[in-house]
Every structure is written in C-alpha cells, then in structure tokens.
C-alpha cells in the first residue's frame, strides 16, 4: 500500500491454537518461504534442535539455508520454542 510516498506492508496475520505436542513455531519473511516449503522448514528446525539444542543457531542456519537456495528477498526468521529439547 502506498501512503504519502511511503510503502506500508500489511502483514498476513493468522491465529492458531498450539497443540500439546507442538514444539516450536517458525515466523519468517517471504524471503524464506519463497525458497523453502513449510515442511522443509519444520524438518530442518527439528533436526537442528536435536543436533545443537540451540534455537538461535537453528534460526541462523535456517536463514543460511534460504541463502544457499538463492533467495532474492530479505530473510528474517524467529523461532519460538514451546516444547522440550530431547
């Protein structure tokens, strides 16, 4: 949307109920989702958490995955961990 010469992004907003077996939520810009599927991101983060037990490292590595897949957009990732690391 263009307002007074400035571009204002209207984000997609969704609400979902977390289930008892949910472990994490991935929030990211379209720079990630343009090159990584939802399931690929879930699998990647799940593996990263098992391997490193570090949510910040998992987010950084997910950004790097999108870069490796040559995303041409800005990439921001936030992972909210709600489970227990095994």
SSE layout:
Blueprint: E1 2-3, E2 6-7, E3 24-28, H1 30-33, H2 38-52, H3 55-68, E4 77-81
Explain what this protein looks like in three dimensions.
- By secondary structure, this protein is α+β, with helices and mostly antiparallel strands.
- It has one domain.
- It is built from 3 helices and 4 strands.
- The protein has helices at residues 30-33, 38-52, 55-68, and strands at 2-3, 6-7, 24-28, 77-81.
- The strands form 2 sheets. The chain has a two-stranded antiparallel sheet. It has a two-stranded antiparallel sheet with strand order 3-4.
- A hairpin with a 2-residue loop joins strand 1 (2-3) and strand 2 (6-7).
- Helix 2 (38-52) packs across helix 3.
- The model has no long low-confidence stretch (mean pLDDT 89).
Oligomer: single chain
Count of distinct structural domains: 1
H/E element order: EEEHHHE
Question: Low-confidence runs (pLDDT<50, min 5 residues)?
Answer: none
| Cα-atom radius of gyration | 15 Å
User: How confident overall, as mean pLDDT?
Assistant: 89
Shape: globular
Distance between the termini: 44 Å
- What level of helicity do the residues show? 25-40%
What is the count of helical runs? 3
Q: How large a portion of the residues is in β-strands, by DSSP E?
A: 15-25%
Q: What is the makeup of the main sheet?
A: 2 strands, antiparallel
How many strands in all?
4
| Class derived from helix and strand content | alpha+beta
């Amino acid at each position: 949307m263009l307002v007074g010469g400035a571009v204002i992004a209207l984000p997609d907003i969704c609400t979902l109920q977390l289930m008892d077996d949910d472990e994490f939520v991935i929030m990211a810009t379209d720079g990630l989702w343009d090159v990584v599927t939802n399931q690929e991101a879930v699998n990647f983060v799940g593996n990263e958490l098992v391997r490193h037990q570090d949510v910040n490292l998992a987010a950084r590595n997910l950004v790097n995955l999108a870069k490796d897949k040559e995303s041409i957009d800005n990439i921001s990732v936030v992972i909210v961990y709600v489970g227990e690391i095994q």
